[in-house]
Amino acid sequence: MKSALFCAAAAALTGVFAVGRTAEADETGKMEDRYAEVNGVKLHYVESGKGPVILFLHGFPEFWYAWKDQLKEFGRSHHAVAVDMRGYNLSGKPEKLEEYAIPKLVEDVAGLLDKLSPAKKAVLVGHDWGGVVAWVFAAMHPEKLDKLVIINAPHPTIFARELASNPAQQRASGYMNIFRGAQAEGFMSANNYAALVSGVLGSARKGAFSDDDKKEYLKAWAQPGALTGGLNYYRASKVGPPAAGEQVSLKSLPPLEIKVPTLVIWGEKDTALLTGNLDGLDKLVTQLTVKKIPEGTHWVVHEEPALINLTIREFLGGRLSVDIQKK
């Protein structure tokens, strides 16, 4: 049986409202909340600055706020945009499960970039599920991108291989089967989202999330339908390790080749997405730079915001040193 992310990848180939914390001012001006109607869904996003577009895509169970430090930094030189992906926070939440398939998510990004940067290429940055969408988008729409930045998000082809053949990754991905279950919403929302608080905010390095951050996440998770919207990414793609005794065929695995210059940042202490996801990546990405962060977890964006910002800036400016690339 084919792995879920492989199936998703194969399918892919064929006004102002504030949420939680009001957008804060930085050196260039205010971060502002916007909406855009694209691909049959209303997407909420927050923007800062002017210039070439750099678009940030979050993962589960986050929302635009995950990129607040990047909006402040890159708003100094770019039109920096962090979107609530469909199903999350203030964006539209379609009811049908098929509306959360990878091809739909990829075309959300295409539609948003058509509005934000219709005549120029953009930079795309993605983490977790946002990174998966970014990988597929870069393969499908390389003409729309100047550069691609991936943070702890597996390339679908590599992840399919790891789920099929790496017992350690299979064990690490066991939670995905739980996320697809009918009881997931009840489990995660119980006791004021205790499972999410401990599993996300509590699993990062101490100090990565403040008490104010926790309040913002609780507000976003409590948006009607938001928890189901995020979980539907797992359900629609059927991503997860094979059942006991099940064999996965890799014979017809699509390569999903990436021809856009790509930076991959990886927190090596990620317990859900293991470093085996980096093995062989250079065979699929023609212009690849990898920056490993030894002490970073899956939530490295929050743990090391200054380092993340510096590394992305050096990559965008063509100044990422050989030493950084080899770490």
Q: What does this protein structure show overall?
A:
With 327 residues, this protein is α/β, with parallel strands linked by helices. It has a single domain, classed as Alpha/Beta hydrolase fold, catalytic domain (Rossmann fold), CATH 3.40.50.1820. Helices cover 39% and strands 17% of the residues. It has 13 helices and 10 strands. It has helices at residues 4-13, 68-74, 102-116, 129-140, 156-165, 167-172, 175-179, 184-201, 211-221, 226-237, 300-303, 305-316, 322-326; strands spanning 25-26, 29-30, 32-38, 41-48, 53-57, 79-83, 122-127, 145-151, 262-267, 288-293. An 8-stranded mixed sheet has the order 3-4-6-5-7-8-9-10, sandwiched between helices. A two-stranded antiparallel ribbon has the order 1-2. The chain is globular, with a radius of gyration of 18 Å. Residues 1-28 and 322-327 have low confidence and may be disordered.
Summarize the entry for a quick read.
Strands 3-4-6-5-7-8-9-10 form an 8-stranded mixed β-sheet, with helices on both faces. A two-stranded antiparallel ribbon has the order 1-2. It has a single domain (4-326), classed as Rossmann fold (3-Layer(aba) Sandwich), CATH 3.40.50. It is built from 13 helices and 10 strands.
